[in-house]
Each structure stands twice: as structure tokens, then as C-alpha cells.
User: Fold these one by one.
Assistant:
Number 1:
Amino acid sequence: MKVIIVKNYEEASQKALEVMLGVIKNKPDANLGLATGSTPKRLYELMREDHKVNGTSYKKIKTFNLDEYFGLSQDHPQSYYYFMCTNLFNELDINMDNVHVPRGSGDIDKECKNYNQLLKDNPLDIQLLGIGSNGHIGFNEPGTSFDSVTHKVDLKESTIKDNARLFFNGNIDEVPKQAVSMGIANIMDAKKVLLIACGENKAEAIKATIDGKQTIDMPASVLQNHDDCIMIIDEAAARLLETR
Ligand code: GLP
């Protein structure tokens, strides 16, 4: 793992932009694995700005999102599909046929199977990740097998609370209790992984991920085994690291 410690969220987002644009410039038809949550918001804003100002094109890019809430349709304002459109896709020249977010409704078993096939047919050049305060990546909660592929998950109470605080107007009853997520094996198959972690509430998960032993109880610790994993961490999230 290559650990880059930066001052704050803004610097983390700028650094992440460099990595992302590096991949796109090197391969204009790259397959990007994308993430949701509050962490990548500024990065997406910077990508939109870069597209507008510098003309970086997404015409040949394909995207594959990590996860989606179970039971929310794509046009629900809290769905991850909607999040991606409003935070990124609507202002890029991307072909929406090349945008993939797992569907959280309909025949879920079939959806998971199809998504796994899609990922097999379109190997990811980069997978962007945030991290949950309990160490989850995508929606792979503690206890998820490292061999897992796209599957339906039950969200932990802490994740539901975290996500209610930042989204859903703080209303915990509105947060779906289940989701569909790429599995850990799908994430590990990406050629490059870029994880961004900012803020005090990520410090314990980051310490366990980097300094701790590999365990399914800390899903992000699997990344210790990835050949090309970059972690961009701000000072607050890096606070407990031994190797600073
Ligand atoms: C959700 C997403 C994750 C994300 C995590 C952290 O659970 N499924 O992909 O990394 O939240 O969110 P935030 O970036 O808002 O802290």
C-alpha cells in the first residue's frame, strides 16, 4: 500500500484528481470503478471542473459503481444512481449507456449475477473507494468474505446511523437496511485501487486497515494484499497511525 498523508480534505481531493486523471490520460477508454458517499464529492467536482476547463473527455470511458441501496429506484434522490448523475455524470460528456450502477430493485439474484459478468468482461483500471467508520468498503460490512462477489448485504446499525447523519436528512427510518454491493474479490480485481479517507471518525478504521492484521472484521485490511493500492489520508484520519 502506498500511503499518502495530506493536510486536509481539499488536498486529498486534489491528489486523488491527479491519480484519476493519470489513469484517464493514459487510457481514454478506461473502466473506472466509482464510489459514493460524502468523501468523493469534492473529487467529482474537480473532475467536472477539469472537464470544463481542460476538456478531458469521458466519451470512451465506462464506469461501474460499487453499490446501491436496496429498494430505491434510480430516480430516488437518495439512490446512488441519482447521486452519481447529479455529482458527476450530468456535467461530463459521458455516454450514459456506459454508466453502470447495480440496480437495487427487481430480481436481485439476477442483477448480482449480471453485474459480476459485467465486471469480468470489463476489468477495472481503477477502483475508487471511501471507507466506512467500521472499515467497510463498498457496502462490504465487517464479516464479509474476502472471496465475495456482487451480493445483497444487510447494513450494520453503525452504517445506517452514519449514512442517516450525512444523507436522508438525518432520518434513520428512511435509510434502507439493505444494499447491493460489489464484493471484496471484485474490488481486489481492479488494477489500481485509490482509497480516500478524511476526518477524525475514520482514524480508527485507518489505523486498523494499515497497521493492523488482515481480518474480515476490518474489510479494508484486505487492501494490504493489493499490488497497486494508493491511500490518500488527511491528518485527522491519519492521527493514530504508527507509521506516519
Ligand atoms: C457508504 C458507501 C461507501 C462509502 C462510505 C463512507 O456506506 N457505500 O462506499 O465509502 O459510505 O461514506 P462517507 O464518504 O460519507 O464517509
Number 2:
Amino acid sequence: MKIFLDTADPDEIRSAAEANLIDGVTTNPSLLAKVATHREPREILLEICDQVDGPVSAEVVAEDCEEMVEEGRRLSEIHPHIVVKVPLSQDGLRACRTLRNNRIRVNVTLCFSAAQAVLAAKAGATYISPFIGRIDDAGHEGMDVLSEIRRVYDTYHYETEILAASLRHPKHVREAMLIGADCATLPPDVLHKLMKHPLTDSGLRAFLDDWERAGRQL
Ligand code: E4P
């Protein structure tokens, strides 16, 4: 399973990439707006792409198909790692098809149902991003939607990769892994929590204490 970092913060991305923890990055307009207060978004995206050896999703902000395609083309010219993110609207799906016909990779975002995911696959999406946490927030089961997408994609042999998004805690990540999502995008704090286990900490402490008591050198 590929692990992406869900942030536009170049420092977080650098640190995770240097530790070889991530296979790519996803951004969205909200995440980019947080860090692009004094810098050009394009410059930040370029910095991110230079740090990561994998796909970096960058989202269009237009709502109309032709403008989305134009923005998508411009985003894709920033760096070969860029994957253009379009929303799951009728215009977004049309833009997806046009961009894919131009060999530009597309992540269809803001997916909340298996039926939407099928439409994205039929539009040639490279990735589909179901928003698990936001489905939970709305009182439904995000993981049920993820399972349905996995089942339907397997049944019809769609090649679109399932990118579990809006993951809020390690349990979400574990469930997405078990369901068979192809990728999961994690906010930095969830990635840090994923690494931690109390038994790892106490086990390490015990090993080091025993070693010190024995007074040995390696
Ligand atoms: C995914 O690509 C989105 O950037 C992200 O996962 C949305 O997460 P949120 O619902 O926590 O904002």
C-alpha cells in the first residue's frame, strides 16, 4: 500500500521524505492556502515535487470544465510529479477525460459513494479519493463506502487506484489497509501516530536498561 502525506507544508514533507516514509503527497486548496500566505503556490508545489520521488496531487480551483483543463495543463507543467486533482462534478469528470487523453494523470477528489467512484473510473481517473472522515462526520460509515468501491472496482477490473483520503487516525489507516485501498493519504500527525506503539517504547527502554546494567560495549 502506498502512503502519501496529506499536507502542503514543505518542512513536514522534507522530514517524511528523508525518512523514506512516503510514496507521494496530496494537497488541496485549503492545505495550500495555509502555507502560501507569503509565497506563490507554484513555487511551493515545485519545492514539494523536488523533495518527493512520487506523485504530488495539486488541485484545480476552476468550476468549469474548460478552465479546469487549462489550470490542469498549467499545473502539470510545473513538474513531472504533478497529478492534477479535479472535483467529482460533471465538469470535473469531463475535464478528467480530456486531461487523461492528453496523458496527464488525474486524481478525482471529493468522492463520497461507490457510484461516484465508478463514474470517475469510467472517466479514466488515475486515482479516486473517497473522503472517509467526512463520510463519518456526516453520520455514515466511511469504511463501508471504501469496501464497496474496492468490491466494484475488482468486479469490473477498473485500473483506477483507490486513494483513501480524509483519514483522521491510525484506526482509519489500519481499516483502509485491510480493505485493500491502493494508497492512503495521511496528515502528518496521523503518520507520526502510526509509528508509535507503547510496547515498542517500553520494550526499547527495557533492552537499553539491561544493556546498561550489564556494562557492556558493542
Ligand atoms: C485528500 O486528498 C484531501 O486533501 C484530504 O484528505 C481531506 O481531508 P479532510 O477531510 O481532513 O480535510
Number 3:
Amino acid sequence: MNLIKKLLEPHLRKPKPSDENALGFGRFFSDHIYKMNYTVEKGWHDSRVEPYGPLLLDPAALVLHYGQEVFEGLKAYRGQDGGIYMFRPRTNIERMNRSCARLCIPQLPVDEVLEHMFEFVRVEMDWIPRANGTSLYVRPTIIATEACLGVKVSHEYLFYIIVGPVGAYYPEGFNPVKIYVEEKYVRAAPGGLGEAKTSANYAAGLLPAEEAHAKGFTQVLWLDACDRKTIEEVSTSNICFVIDGEVVTAPLGGTILPGVTRDSALTICRHWGIPVSERRLTIDEVIAAQKDGRLREAFGTGTAAVISPVGSITYQGQDFAVGNGKTGELSRKLYDELTGIQLGTRPDPFGWVVKLA
Ligand code: COI
């Protein structure tokens, strides 16, 4: 499949954000969009880059009514040598295909998608910011576009990729966040959509997040849907606890997102000789460890959030400080290592980085 490029004349392109230290997350979008369509007759076809703009969708498009949609999140970086890099892009596109399988969306041709995504990022490379802690966020998305109000699997899809410069996901930046342990609402139940990267999982978290924000918290920590005891993840990332010198995180049991940053952080820890355990961990165990000083750190892991230190956990109305509310040593080391690998300033022993230009 060829990639067709219909690019804007340079004088029609948008000005770049003036302050790269105030980008926030997901507010700026580049000049172009990548698109590809699917029909049963043609499969995936018409791979193209065109000017960024609103989508034309039938109001009866299945995605708008029954949520047949999947997405991904990756980043492109400008390295110290001026080169353009992406981090584990194949892992994301392969995960997208697993999300597709759960949502009855046809599989993507991985090699072709990667090649076209790289070419699209090259087209938009002037949008990659240079300031410390910034990157170009890449958001591949698939939506069901067939017009039909019957509850059914769509026969038509649009795959698109948008990109834009981002800074830190949380307003706190790399400072520790306050987390509220959610006991009323749940994100995903066994057998549900929890391990797929699909909008429904994020929609389920909106009301709990609003309620938590109103109480002054940055994020909610999800417990399992059955007995509200086992730790799952945070709405925007996976979560790890450092207890008795061991990094403990929830196993990939079907209800949590198989995070690429989660896997990268665990791989680096193992490489450093730090014990890692992917096992069932209850909130009671975390609170007990905090009380007798064995809980040293907690941190979120996500593409958008990178490594996000947790400063306090609030459970049943009580606040429990983590690491005296300060960024932990391992959180800092992991952040430096991961971003170092991503920017090409540290060795890449696992072959995670792809050079695009
Ligand atoms: C990412 O980390 O890339 C995500 O997709 C999470 C989203 C909540 C921003």
C-alpha cells in the first residue's frame, strides 16, 4: 500500500506554540493527519497524510452509539544528536491489534502501519518540541464508521493518527501526586474490557475523577470490581509500590492495561537486580506496609505520565504519606533512565528505540 501525501503549503501551516515550557498535555495539534480506511471488500486501504481538520461522520456511525473504538499513545523525541526517535512503537501497534480483537475491529497490518506512522512523524518533525521533558505525542485511533443503529459489529472503519507537542501530563510535573483510593466505583470487571485500550474504560473513570478532583486529589486508584480489596491501576497509568525493597505491581490478569511503560520500568528494574513481583496486592497490605515504614515509594507508569511519583494515598478518609510525600529515589532513577534511553543520552540495552531521522 502506498502512502499518499497531500500536504499544506508552508504559508498555510499553523504557528507552533510559543512557550515550550507551558505545553500541558493534548492541547496542540500539528498541521496534518494520517488516515486509512477499512471496508469488508477492500480491507485496509487509502493510506494517506492530509491537512488536519474535522472528521466527516454519519450521525449514525456505530462508534458514536456503541463505542466501537480503540486507541494508542506513543511519543516521538528529538534526541541530543538532533535525530528523531520513537520508543517501542511496534509494542504499541501490536497492543492495538489485541485491543482490536476484543472490540471486533479488523487487525492492522503492523509493518505497514509502522512504516506509515514513521513517515507521518517525519512530515511533522518540526512539531517535535525541544524543551526538557517535552515530546511529540502520537495518538493512533480506530473508529467504527458504518451508519447503523442496530447493535452490531461495524463493516467500515477509519484509522487515523494525530500528533501534537506535549509537556508533563499532570500539572504537578514530576512532583508527587495525591491519590484517592476509589471504593464506590469500579473501572473494569473480570471478563470486561479492562485490558483493551478503548474509550469505555476512560469514560468509566470520568465521574470518579471529577469527584476526586473536587476533594483535591490528582487521580483515583482503582480496586478490583469483586471485593474492592485488590489494587488494579490508576486511570491514566499502571502503578508500582516499593515494599521491603521489592517493586510490586498488579499482574496482567485481564482487568488492567498491559502498559508499555509498565513493562519497560519492570524490565529496567530486573536488569538492575531489583526484585520485581507481579502479584495480587491488597490495599490493606499497602496500608500496613506504610504504617510500619516498609512502603518506601509508589509511582505510576504510563506513556503520557512517564514515571509519576505518588506522594500520598487516601483510603477510607485517612491520608497515608508515601516516602514523606517526596519523590522517591527509584522513581527518580527510573525517570532518568527511561527518558535517557528515549532521548538517546543513555545506552539502549533492550533495543527499544527506533531512529526515524
Ligand atoms: C497514554 O499514557 O499514552 C495514555 O493513553 C493515557 C491517557 C490517559 C493519556
